[in-house]
Amino acid sequence: MQMDLSSFPMARVIDAKRGGGQLLKWIGNKQRFAKEIIRYFPDNYGVYYEPFLGSGAVLGALSPETGIASDTFAPLLGIWEALKRSPETLKDWYAMRHGRMNRAASQKDGYENIKADYNASPNSADLLFLCRSCYGGVVRFRKRDGYMSTPCGIHTPISPDSFGRRVDAWAEKVAGTDFIHADYKVSLAAAQSGDLVYCDPPYTHSQAILYGAQEFSLGELFNEIEKAKERGVYVSLSIDGTKRSGETQCELPLPADLFEREVFIDCGRSMLRRFQMGGETLETECVSDRLLLTY
User: Fold this and answer.
1) Of the candidates 3, 47, 27, which has an alpha carbon nearest to the alpha carbon of residue 207?
2) What is the pLDDT of residue 232?
3) Distance CA 87, CA 21 (A)
4) Beta-ladder partners of 270
5) Which of 15, 53, 90, 238 has the lowest tally of Cβ within 10 angstroms?
6) pLDDT for the residue 28
7) What average pLDDT does the segment 286-290 reach?
């Protein structure tokens, strides 16, 4: 069922160009089409919840007056907490590691040293720099122990001054949002009638080694969404849509009557497939996210 927007109210949208781009690189980043997703949000809602925070692209584009964003991956959530609590701390974290990379024998050596520190003791400060400097922005983890394995990127990481400007812009965007280290079920249970929840969980077909190697059950998520819907909560879910991943077409067992509308959003080329296949330009590896709405 395709969605008719002719009479659907438009949500408040912040220009994604304000602030010069994304704060973090992260797999599944919705930066390029966050505004398109927001077009399908209701115009009026109470508290905005984002329980699978990741790069926060949709949060940043929406810039809600009152928001609660969460994630179970503590090193990632710590970056957002620092942004809200002390933007200067975030700038210092990045600048120190950027300088350390420049003083190393090579960019790769500097990166590998920082990655080794992170793997010895996972922390937000190292992860911040690694996610901006790793290959393709694809942060991946070994499932058995959480070892971060992505090699150094071929690009030059942005300067501390440029990153600092992004921090300032993003601090404004999330001024109304609180960040909590919690499972998505906590946020869905807390949402009340008239609130809005946007869910962007790990994708079942392509992200088994990503996003902190978290365990995730799509069936359990559907159950929690159903409970929230019964309370009058608006829920929007980004999930596997049509994706040519090798020769696999993604199909999902959607519960009957849970979602009222669906739309497919063109995401362009698959970043993960490009990473897996050595950086090739993959003309057939296109991705369309399925956006499912309970309203």
Assistant:
1) 27
2) 98
3) 17
4) none
5) 15
6) 75
7) 72
Residues counted in the chain: 295
Which residues, in sequence order, are CB contacts of 185 under 8 Å at separation 6+?
220, 224
pLDDT for the residue 16: 37
pLDDT in tens, 12-34: 333 433 445 899 998 777 888 99
Q: Is residue 50 helix, strand or coil?
A: strand
Q: What is d(CA 48, CA 65) in angstroms, rounded to the nearest whole number?
A: 8
Q: Given this structure, which CATH class describes domain 31-293? A: alpha beta
Cα-based distances in Å from 285 to 23, 96, 154, 209, 290: 26, 38, 22, 19, 16
The β-bridge partners of 248 are: 245
Q: Which residues contact 35 (CB under 8 A, 6 or more apart)?
A: 13, 16, 61
pLDDT at 4 over 50: no
Amino acid at 143: K
**Angstrom distances, CA of residue 247 to CA of 125, 137, 285:** 39, 24, 10
Q: For 140-192, what is each residue's pLDDT tens digit?
A: 888 888 999 999 999 999 999 999 999 999 999 999 999 999 999 999 999 99
Cα–Cα dist 196/8, whole Å: 16
Q: What is the pTM of this model?
A: 0.83
Q: Indicate the domain borders of the chain.
A: 31-293
Q: Kindly give, in sequence order, each residue whose CB lies less than 8 Å from that of residue 93, ignoring residues fewer than 6 positions away.
A: 82, 124, 125, 128, 129
What is the Cα Rg of the chain in Å?
19
Amino acid, res. 114: I
**Residues 6 or more apart from 187 whose CB is under 8 A from it?**
49, 50, 51, 68, 70, 197
